[in-house]
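Proteins fold reproducibly. Next comes an illustrative record:
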Amino acid sequence: MEDAAHDSGTRRAPALTERQRRHLRGLAHALKPVVRLGSAGLSAAVAAETARALDAHELIKVKAAAGGREARDQLFAALAQQTGSALVHRIGNVAVLYRPRSDLPRILIPDH
């Protein structure tokens, strides 16, 4: 049976300071996108796959299909909200999402 804390629908995005965001951006620099959003946009399956990737890696890059900047911003914000993750950074059509594991976080971030 899955613990309620692992359900991405009930998790809240971690609040991050600018120093923590900067640290996570540095860690994410070498990462390749593990989730790609196609022209169909955000679906329940994509959100579920993103949640699984966050459970496994905590820090991931997501790449969206080319489109308008506002549409991509809304897409990334909706994905972060649905997965209970923090939108650390967005540049072009790539976003960085962070959600610490509830049982044993792998990534240590500065306190403030």
Q: What stands out?
A: The chain has a mean pLDDT of 87. The longest helix spans residues 69-83. The longest strand covers residues 59-64.
